[in-house]
Design goal:
Elements lengths: L1 H27 L5 H20 L6 H5 L1
Length: 65
Amino acid sequence: MKSLKILVAVIAMASVLVFLISLVVVVSTDGAHEGAANICAYSLIASFVSLVFYEPKRSESDLVS
């Protein structure tokens, strides 16, 4: 189960990173690069979906209260 949580965290981080990189490419080309725009749109969807499943590590103080 722990490896699944690590995998979800890695996928969430990668999808957010791909979104930011493709967004920079789209902005720098003033929207002329359609491939980067498609990647940006799909990675935005993937990052939202993966962040839904992401659970941050909880500390002991969070579990008590």
